[in-house]
Specification:
Length: 121
């Protein structure tokens, strides 16, 4: 996904009040971080992560919660060789978000980010 494609998707979600302004901004900032880190303008196979991310941030802001992935999946995804990089990204998001970041959402970040990092390293 390229930045302009991401912004088209986020613009639609924001205009329809499906995501918040801060979810929009933090998702864009995180795209920039990954794009710069991996020296890529097109982050392959990342669409699902960006959609999940902006929706997760909006859910959290609105006090909604979700059930995380099954514990057996969580144990497996936490063994990813990209653990340190994923933690850096989650920390980056947390610093900008100013809300409690539930474990369930972090587990989904691990799940999606593993694939993004694996495809774009």
């Amino acid at each position: 996904m390229k930045k302009n494609e991401l912004n088209q998707k986020l613009d639609i979600l924001k205009e329809n009040k499906i995501i918040t302004d801060s979810a929009y901004a933090i998702t864009n900032d995180t795209f920039d971080l990954l794009s710069e880190k991996y020296k890529k303008e097109d982050l392959s196979d990342s669409d699902m992560f960006w959609t999940h991310m902006c929706m997760a941030l909006t859910r959290i802001e609105q006090g909604e919660s979700i059930e995380g992935p099954m514990e057996v999946i969580v144990m497996e995804i936490r063994q990813t060789p990209y653990r340190n990089e994923i933690e850096e990204i989650i920390t980056f998001v947390k610093r900008r978000f100013h809300h409690e970041f539930p474990k369930e959402e972090q587990d989904f970040f691990y799940l999606h980010l593993h694939q993004v990092l694996d495809k774009n390293k």
